[in-house]
Amino acid sequence: MFTLTVSRVNSLLTLCCLVGLGLSLYAYTVELQIERNEKYSPMCDISPQMSCSKAFKSPYGKGFGIFGKFSTLNQPNSLFGLMFYSMMATLAQSNSKFPAWFMLMAIFLSNLLSLYFAYILYFVLYDFCVVCVGTYVVNILNLLLIQAKLKLLLAPRQDPIKKAN
Q1: Could you list the residue ranges that cross the membrane (predicted)?
Q2: DSSP alpha helix (H) spans, the chain
């Protein structure tokens, strides 16, 4: 029988964060290649309606589409993803409640951003970005996993002496 433990949840969270890190690194590499070479065609450009470069090159591909051209925060969104998933993978190693609560808030916000970007992708850009959707899936999985971790951390512990009686 499969028993969910904090250690297993930590491992699954770390795995999901590593997948998110890989997707963000790929996206960042593609963005750098596109800036260097306009004719570069990444593997994630499957068709005109399924194009990651269309999403990355759009005004929403940098600074979340919110920060202006001259803002320090007007960086590729994938760079923020690299920082976010690195931080979440590191915090996932802790079994303390405070880092878990912080992760819940951060991952919840990342899911709100995923909804924002999914809306833009579908209704504004009329595009399907495989890399983007991959990060949305990672964010949903991270949310489910951090909720499971908090549930385990907040569960009352049974005294081993009482359990034996």
Answers
A1: 100-119, 125-146
A2: 6-36, 52-57, 77-91, 97-119, 130-154, 160-164
Q: What is the pTM of this model?
A: 0.90
In the chain, % of residues over pLDDT 90: 88
Please choose, from the candidates 147, 142, 148, 150, the residue with its C-alpha nearest in 3D space to the C-alpha of residue 16. 142
Distances 52 to 45, 67, 85 between C-alpha atoms, Å: 6, 21, 20
pLDDT tens track for 27-57? 999 999 999 998 999 999 999 999 999 999 9
Q: How far apart are CA 31 and CA 80, in angstroms?
A: 13
CA distances 138 to 40, 64, 107, 157, Å, are 27, 18, 10, 30
Domains of the chain: 6-153 (1.20.1440.130)
Say how far apart CA 62 and CA 55 lie, in whole Å: 10
